[in-house]
Amino acid sequence: MPHITVPSIIQEYLKLYPVSTAPPLPGNPDVTVFNFVGQQIINENFVTARVDHKFSEKDSLFGTYLYDKTPYSSPDPMGNVQLSTLTARQIFAAEETHSFTPTLINAARFGFNREIVNNDESAKALNAQAANTALGAFANRNASLVRVSTLSDMTGGVGGLATYFYRWNSFQGYDDAFLNKGTHTIKFGAAFERMLLQVQALTDVNGIWIFGDLPSFLQNAPSKFQGGVIGSLTPRNFRQSVIGAYVQDDWRARPNLTLNLGLRYEIATVPTETQGKLVNLRKIGDTLPICGTSSPGCASVGPLFSNPTLKNLEPRVGFAWDPFRNGRMAVRGGAGLFDVLPLPYQFILLETQATPFFQYLSFSKNSAPAQPLQVGPLPAADFDPALLRARSTFIDSNSKRNYVAQWNLNLQYQLTQSLAAMVAYVGSRGIHQPFRVDEANLTIPVKTSAGYLWPQVDSSGNLTSGPNAGNPPNPLNTAYSSIRGMFYKGRSYYNALELQLAKRMSHGFQMQGTYTWGKSIDTSSATLAGDAFGNSISSLHYFDEKLTRGLSDFNVGRTLVLNGTWEIPSAKSWSGPAKWLAGGWELGLIFTASDGVPFTSTWGTGSDPANTLSSDDYAFPARLGGSGCNTLTNPGNPNHYIKTECFGVPVAPDMAFWNQNCNQFPPNLQPNSGPAVSVPFPQCFNLRGNSGRNIMIGPGITSLDFSVFKNNRIKRISENFNVQFRVEMFNLLNHPNFAPPGPGDGNTDVFDGTGAALGGTLQNPGTAGKLIRTTIPERQIQVAIKIVF
Fold first, then answer.
1. In 490-630, which residue ranges form alpha helices assigned H by DSSP?
2. Nearest in space to 712 (alpha carbons), one of 618, 546, 585, 615
3. Which single residue of 372, 531, 550, 655 could bond 694 by disulfide (Cβ 3.0 to 4.6 Å)?
4. In three state form, how does the secondary structure of 321-383 look?
5. Closest Cα partner for 730 from 595, 589, 596, 593?
6. What are phi and psi of 661, to 5 degrees?
7. Other CB atoms within 10 Å distance of the CB of residue 417
8. Residue 459: helix, strand or coil by DSSP?
């Protein structure tokens, strides 16, 4: 990197980056790796109780209570801020069973569930700079999160990470009846649940500065800023009810054949909010939303959406067959419809972050009211209500019923008295599933013979042709800087083969092995947020589902699990201390081996190379052929996991196409002053690359857990009294299980916003494809005493 004079404000921000003693990355002398040991403290207090009472031969009652509180603390990813998380839950349940006749029994149940979660709350500054309010973009706030393409995010000062507070209360009532009549066992009943959810989302309250590359950061030349205004981040109190009823008949049609026939009806009310703070654009281009209460900035008052659950009839069938009538073989199968109800979890982030009940600043270097856009306290002009562009929400208001059809068939065979084998097929298909994107407000491209193409613009970002030539293109809705979207048009497909061999406990030994070979495909794996998983793309291109169809973000192709327990025998003739010392030992193991989850290659994240005008910008590269590119990863190489040589910047098919359609002076490349920067033929920044979603598989998982128990039974106290000493070892072999590259880690980009390669070579790797996280912890040993009575 050439010599750069770093502004004082950036020098202050650099104090929030750890100083590494590791050497620079080969081929990239300005970037290195930093590792640190952070202390994680977890305390758990768990209490459970149960009461049973039999009033008479016909009436009995039982009740249970559970309390679990777990505070957890750890440093943030840069070691600047101590984070605190709390989870606490209380569960109460009571059931009264009454026998009307020997063939008719009724069970009535009531339950209450309360959960509290405080997630990623800043507790204190570990680095004094993290509490320096002079660095805040907003008044009286600390340093903002800094996102530099190809680098890990610097999560800012105290309060820099998004913090969420959840308060969940659920009241449940069930009534189930059981009737035996001849060869029929009939079950029928009803259920009701009332859900109360309070959520407060402190989203980006310190703001986020986004830079296209490292030189831009060091020169204080951000490409974007976004952040939530703290005074508008008020709680939301959601209310919703679920009502269900069912009937099921287990009919023993033959001595060796049982049929299961059932029907369930289940509906959910449309979510409401106690103060009416609900927002939805009926059409994504509307200038004003429909709200839950009358307020300035709302078009009118109405429900969040029309209820798609009113016709939720769910038929289900199954069977169990003993073909040889000897109890050694069982063939079972079933199929049914299962509705996916639109419950509050789907709308938490959509409804806590939408105007007019929420304010969120978002502007690029060109659209910022105060110029130039620079790190530091935001000028008053950036808060001018006449210029402020807000964030809104679009939820499909007339969505269709969202359901999953499931089916399965399995064969079980008893090989010996203690050994059984099973082979099974499981399948499902999801219809009208949530398709969640963090940004739906972008310029929609046109489909050409070369792929999807965004409008051609000049170096200033203005259209070069058409009726609006000389002006910049518009996103779908110019009234908002950002629109989070929920489209109920997703599809999912799952098919799997399952094999199992199980040895029941005999002679003190039991073991089971399970192998699953499956594939899950969908058009989107997101519900709560666009990036529900660490490998997710947060705003998929929803305008064409063919582009997003691929392996599910959670797909694991093959999984092998072996587990066993051995109660070590001891000499029966021994007595006294020798008998105690040698007896009661128990060994256990769990071995897991599985494929990794898929991930997606990107380029130019944060610099919008295609000029999509999306606030959640990234681009798909082109997939190249050639030697070695049938596979796209280098297994076993954590420094160069992606074969970056198999990807390229999208290119025009010929010179005529390039001249007529491609951005020859991409706006994201242009300096603040000086001559315009061009790209050579055939690079076409505004052409969507043909590299698909989730076309690469991350590293697999191999783990061995081992346990040693010493049972000390004290029959003088009671027959079942046991003081058990436990030593449990997780990941005994200390095998490193790497997570795949993820968009949040900055290592899925194979090129930066200028088109420069980030992968390096096998000998001199760059940041692309570098594995920096693990999926399971290092070896952990846990020692405990358990008292059973």
1. 545-548, 576-582
2. 585
3. 550
4. ECCCCCCCEEEEEEEEEEECCCCHHHCHHHHCCCCCCCCEEEEECCCCCCCCCCCCCCCHHHH
5. 589
6. -125, -25
7. 8
8. coil
645 secondary structure, DSSP code: G
Radius of gyration of the chain (CA): 30
Q: Minimal CA–CA distance to 413: which of 502, 506, 335?
A: 502
Tell me the whole-structure pTM to 2 decimals: 0.88
Q: Is 160 exposed, middle or buried (0-12, 13-18, 19+ CB in 10 A)?
A: buried
Q: How far is it, in rounded angstroms, from Cα 317 to Cα 331?
A: 14
Give the start-end residues of each E strand in 5-80: 41-42, 45-54, 59-75
Nearest to 240 by CA among 309, 140, 327: 309
pLDDT in tens, 328-363: 999 999 999 999 999 999 999 999 989 899 887 877
How far, in Å, CA of 309 to CA of 181, rounded? 33
Amino acid letter, residue 232: S
pLDDT at residue 6 tops 80? yes
Using alpha carbons, list the distances in angstroms from residue 230 to 165, 204, 271, 312, 378: 15, 9, 25, 41, 14
For residue range 529-541, what is the model confidence (pLDDT) as tens digits?
A: 888 898 999 999 9
CA angle centred on 433, ends 428 and 435, rounded to 5°: 130
Q: Is 650 helix (H, G, I), strand (E, B) or coil?
A: coil
Q: How far is the CA of 354 from the CAs of 123, 290, 301, 350, 443, in angstroms?
A: 27, 12, 15, 7, 21
Here the tokens at position 136 are: 């805040």
Distance CA(288)–CA(299), nearest Å, equals 5
Tell how many helices (H) and how many strands (E) occur in the chain: 6, 36
- Measure the CA–CA gap between 597 and 739, rounded to whole angstroms: 9
Ramachandran angles phi, psi of 164, nearest 5°: -125, 140
- The tokens describing 541, both together, are 């291109």
d(CA 428, CA 730): 33
Query: Is 719 exposed, middle or buried (CB count within 10 Å of its CB: 0-12, 13-18, 19+)?
Result: exposed
CA distances from residue 227 to 205, 320, 334, 353, 367 in whole angstroms, order as listed: 6, 57, 50, 11, 15
Confidence at 189, pLDDT banded by 50, 70, 90: very high
Cα 383 to its chain centre, rounded Å, is 33
The kind and range of the H/E element at 489 are strand 480-506
| 626-635 long-range contacts, CB within 8 A, separation 24+ | 632/601, 632/695, 632/696, 633/696, 633/697, 633/698, 633/769, 634/762, 634/769, 635/699
* Contacts with 152 (C-beta within 8 Å, 6 or more apart), sequence order: 77, 745, 746, 772
Angle at 721 between CA 720 and CA 727, to 5 degrees: 110
At residue 762 the predicted structure's pLDDT band, cuts being 50, 70 and 90, is low
Contact by Cβ (8 Å): 550, 694 = yes
For 65-74, give one letter per residue: b (16+ CB within 10 A) or e.
eeeeeeebbe
Amino acid making up residue 295: S
In this structure, what token pair is assigned to residue 191? Answer: 């259920």
Please identify which residue in the block is written with the tokens 């997606």: 600
Give the number of other Cβ atoms within 10 Å of residue 528's Cβ: 14
Interval 660-694: pLDDT, tens = 999 999 998 988 778 999 999 999 999 999 999 99
